């Protein structure tokens, strides 16, 4: 699917082709990192190709008709994909949005559905990396994941999530997105292995099914975790659902941003619930954080799994909160999420005073 969509787009426009060559030269630098002579030539190639692409785009931006062509849109998508910094990404996407507005809106891309799909996929991918709101709405006429319920989840996870849903009626819409993502992960089953090919259609199709839920999560409000318990619970669900999404993207071969900042924020929310003595139900967010990171444990990234385990096991505030609030329920959540690995880590950390559950 990726080849069917993106490769033809690359050759749609001169600037897009030049940018693709620049990216190829950047990749070649990684392959020839120990060959200084080759690196020097590749650096010049990157500058040359990218400069040519920018000149081509700038020349056409002076005319309203050529500035809003499919080729220009494709080229700017390429620039946005390959920008390594948030400022670069934001500038390219803001420019792309303005060009599409001048053209008459996203509906004017209806005659080129492949380009329309790439606009949405790149928009969602970048928003996920930077945890920002997507620039464009998700199109109504696009693949949408099937309706799901907690009954599609394996027991006892479904029972526990169901109990959390009942205690968080205000977050029902977010949980729908969470369960959709879980279903997509489960549908892939045993196929999700390290050797999954980025180019195979079945995995790209799964990513497309994930997109509507991902767009909803990224478009959701970012609540201030210090405001009140409802705000913390809402942000907990949003962050944990993004971890589900990151796990799936890794397993189908997409490059994903590090999950550690999201993990740290979940831990921050959990710790703050303990400090907030007036919180009517401080254990609620702890349950959410513990249960919803199950999706992240599906990830093939061992470093992230160990980071999550180590952070929870060595955070005295969380351990104190567990002892002060509801030890038995907390242990149940931990064992449900981590299983045998938790027992092993408890042994490893047994030398730390005050870190036993």
From TrEMBL:
Pfam family, one: Fungal_trans_2
InterPro entries: Fun_TF
Name assigned to this protein: Transcription factor domain-containing protein
Provenance organism: Polychaeton citri CBS 116435
């Amino acid at each position: 699917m990726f080849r069917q969509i993106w490769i033809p787009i690359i050759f749609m426009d001169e600037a897009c082709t030049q940018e693709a060559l620049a990216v190829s030269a950047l990749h070649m630098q990684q392959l020839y990192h120990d060959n200084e002579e080759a690196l020097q030539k590749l650096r010049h190639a990157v500058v040359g190709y990218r400069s040519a692409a920018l000149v081509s785009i700038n020349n056409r931006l002076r005319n309203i008709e050529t500035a809003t062509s499919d080729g220009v849109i494709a080229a700017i998508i390429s620039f946005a994909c390959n920008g390594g910094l948030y400022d670069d990404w934001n500038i390219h996407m803001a420019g792309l949005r303005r060009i599409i507005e001048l053209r008459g809106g996203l509906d004017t891309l209806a005659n080129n559905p492949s380009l329309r799909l790439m606009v949405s996929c790149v928009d969602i991918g970048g928003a996920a990396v930077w945890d920002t709101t997507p620039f464009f709405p998700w199109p109504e006429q696009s693949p949408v994941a099937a309706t799901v319920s907690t009954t599609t989840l394996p027991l006892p996870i479904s029972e526990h999530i169901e109990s959390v849903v009942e205690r968080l009626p205000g977050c029902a819409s977010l949980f729908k997105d969470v369960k959709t993502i879980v279903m997509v992960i489960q549908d892939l089953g045993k196929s999700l292995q390290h050797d999954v090919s980025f180019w195979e259609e079945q995995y790209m199709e799964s990513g497309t099914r994930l997109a509507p839920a991902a767009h909803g999560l990224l478009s959701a409000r970012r609540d201030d975790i210090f405001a009140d318990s409802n705000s913390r619970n809402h942000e907990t669900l949003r962050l944990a659902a993004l971890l589900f999404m990151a796990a799936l993207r890794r397993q189908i071969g997409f490059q994903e941003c590090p999950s550690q900042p999201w993990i740290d924020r979940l831990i921050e929310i959990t710790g703050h619930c303990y400090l907030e003595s007036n919180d009517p139900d401080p254990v609620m967010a702890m349950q959410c954080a513990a249960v919803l990171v199950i999706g992240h444990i599906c990830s093939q990234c061992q470093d992230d799994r160990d980071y999550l385990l180590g952070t929870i096991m060595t955070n005295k505030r969380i351990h104190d909160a567990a002892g002060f609030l509801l030890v038995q329920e907390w242990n149940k959540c931990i064992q449900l999420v981590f299983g045998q690995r938790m027992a092993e880590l408890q042994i490893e950390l047994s030398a730390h005073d005050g870190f036993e559950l």
